[in-house]
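Thread title: Can someone regenerate the structure for this chain?

I was given the following input by a collaborator and told the matching structure tokens would be attached. They weren't. Posting the sequence so someone can regenerate them.
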Amino acid sequence: MGNAVEAVESYLAVARAGAVGAFLNPAAGKSELAYMLEDSGAELLLVDSARREQIKTDVDVVATDGAFEELAGSAGPTPPDDLDLDAPAWMLYTSGTTGRPKGVLLSQRSCLWVVASCWAPVLDLGPDEELLSALPLFHSYALDLTVVAIVATGASLRLLPRFSPARAIATLREEPVSLFAGVPTMFHYLVEHLDGEPLRAQRLRLCVSAGAILPAALTEAFERATGVPLLDGYGITETSTMVTMNWPTGARPPGSCGLPLPGCAVRLVDPGTGADVEPEEEGELIVRGPQVMLGYHNRPEDTAEALQDGWYHTGDLARADRNGYLTITGRIKELIIRGGENIAPAEVEQAITEHPGVTEAAVVGRPDEALGEAVAAFVVADEGAVQAEDLRGFAAERLADFKVPCEFHFVEEIPRTGSGKVMRHRLAELLD
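Best answer:
Regenerated them for you:
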């Protein structure tokens, strides 16, 4: 289901029942949805009524509309409050370089720990605060901040069904919203929509960004346009959202994603040797702390590779200055991040190569001012057998909208290493 109160109720109800809630993207294509239902071992699928007839599955399906009001009036035993905080509570799917989404298992303790070390102290969340969010509820960012943190601190949430800069600005002007959470793309569109006009928000005092790299120029433009501080942080699904955060007090180096959260250990290491790098040198970011995932669902080998001696290897590259402020510089992993959405190149490539006229395909991320990155595809095809628009429509039938390439380039061959791996940096150079 989409962003709705029923989704929040479902997430809490499933955990309260001692089950594991696996959140699925409502924009997922049919094949993606079928894969995640099978991979998760789901026994029950909760949907809104609008999607009920679209779902074709052997799993039991329940439309939530009005169900909770009906159940609230029924007599029944109150479940004991004896849930294991360290047991799997939620499973969120994240795209990997293999192209198949992996189920990340998070516990209540891991998510609550991020609330206690980040959201509560940094945002000063409490009963007097009201958060506005259009973050998709199937993301860990939204789960932890807009569900767990709101319930844990007693703050209020004003939830938008989807992001619209006009709707967000109108809400900020008309309602007593004190905080706004988003991804960099949202803040870009807010600045663009204001177009020099004052924000005139009733009560907004702080904004927070995560989910993708926030350019220093965008932070400066947003704060100049609104007069409201915009804090950036770094986190991923495997760490129950946050690892580092900028604070409203103290230094905020341009382009930095802040300091490690209290109680969270962070290292930057040479990807080849595992040795720690010096300040200002680039290294792979690895993390150890209570917020690290329990593991990948039914993927012991992937779990063992990601979690080594208690350290989670993020696959992201970063630099730290001499005061400990981190700046993300790139990715060892080949994920494309479009507007905060992770896209695995292999998944998109597989969908394109299902076309009978396509021999090979490879995709890379193209820098995009609004989205951070956009998907660009390189295709080897039979001469005259297919056009770009044909491939765009073909991909759209198999992939969520945000994964469909915005452009297609026809090439004679895909550059590969001796072992057959795609040389994506060579393709990216062709975009310049």
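The mean pLDDT is 90.
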